[in-house]
Specification:
Blueprint: E1 2-7, H1 14-25, E2 31-37, H2 49-55, E3 60-65, H3 78-85, E4 91-95, E5 104-107, E6 116-120, H4 128-135, H5 144-152, E7 162-169, E8 181-188, H6 192-205, E9 210-217, E10 220-223, E11 227-235, H7 238-255, E12 258-264, E13 268-273
Parallel strand pairs: 1-4, 1-5, 2-3, 2-4, 5-6
Antiparallel strand pairs: 7-11, 8-10, 8-12, 9-11, 12-13
Length: 274
């Protein structure tokens, strides 16, 4: 799922830009939108911004208020909402989360945490076609759930009796006395890393009893406790699945050219990870 944030003051056309993007992206896949609300709206949002999103082609919309949740169930946040959307949607357009580390359009000079894809004084300055091209060059938002959903769509899923997964995460301590790790930052050797990952996946899929494989390693800043890397295998039986998962993560760690910086409470050090 590709994620795009729109950051800027409320009077510069963020919702209009979201509508334009929904119309464009809905021709390419399923679109969801997420909007930060300054207050909890009424359940009936007819005529409100989220209704405009749906009218423009968004299949699902969420309005998230900072302090008040206006539906039944557990209160949502942005990361949890994106994780829920990733298995079923191709795009998510996010309004009003300038602090989120996601690819972003900045309107009116608004500061933001994510990669900047476009900038304008208002929505009218943004070239939608160019923006969509740049969005497709960014790293997709993947979760364990989105990768599991992908392998389940295999044409051979009716022959599969096992799904095995591996998730690597940022540990805060190697030992109790170590300085706490705040985050890891990853950069990849552009082109080479993706080609190597694709080659590993092809080799795994060619193994007897393996029907599908999916691998993903995040780049950018990953906070302590967050997930970094996933390997998912769809296979006929558990033994083939377990062996392929282990070989997949071992080869990813050994062969994919990634550069890692560890940031602790005391220091920051880059280390090459092959």
């Amino acid at each position: 799922m590709y994620v795009l944030g729109i950051a800027g003051p409320s009077d510069l056309g963020k919702t209009t830009l979201t509508e334009q993007l929904c119309r464009c992206l809905a021709d390419r896949g399923r679109v969801a939108t997420v909007k930060r609300m300054t207050h909890a709206p009424a359940i009936d949002t007819a005529g409100k911004d989220t209704a405009r999103h749906r009218a423009a082609g968004a299949a699902t919309t969420y309005g998230i208020a900072a302090e008040t949740w206006f539906a039944t169930g557990q209160q949502r946040d942005l990361s949890g909402t994106l994780a829920d959307l990733a298995p079923e949607y191709d795009y998510a357009v996010v309004e009003g989360y300038s602090e989120a580390r996601i690819p972003t359009v900045a309107l009116g000079g608004r500061d933001h945490a994510g990669e900047r894809l476009a900038v304008g004084s208002d929505a009218g300055d943004i070239d939608i076609g160019s923006l969509v091209e740049r969005l497709h060059e960014t790293e997709p938002y993947e979760t364990l759930g989105s990768l599991v959903a992908r392998v389940k769509r295999s044409d051979d899923s009716d022959r599969a009796g096992a799904i095995a997964t591996f998730t690597g995460r940022v540990r805060e301590h190697d030992d109790p006395d170590d300085a706490a790790t705040e985050c890891l930052e990853f950069e990849k050797y552009e082109g080479v890393a993706d080609e190597t990952m694709a080659g590993i996946r092809e080799d795994l899929c060619a193994r007897d009893g393996v029907f599908e494989a999916a691998l993903h390693h995040r780049t950018g800043v990953v906070e302590a406790g967050e997930d970094i890397v996933f390997v998912v295998i769809l296979a006929g039986h558990r033994r083939e699945a377990f062996r392929a998962v282990e070989d997949g993560i071992d080869r990813l760690k050994q062969e994919v050219p990634l550069f890692k910086k560890e940031v602790t409470v005391e220091d920051a050090v880059w280390a090459h990870e092959r």
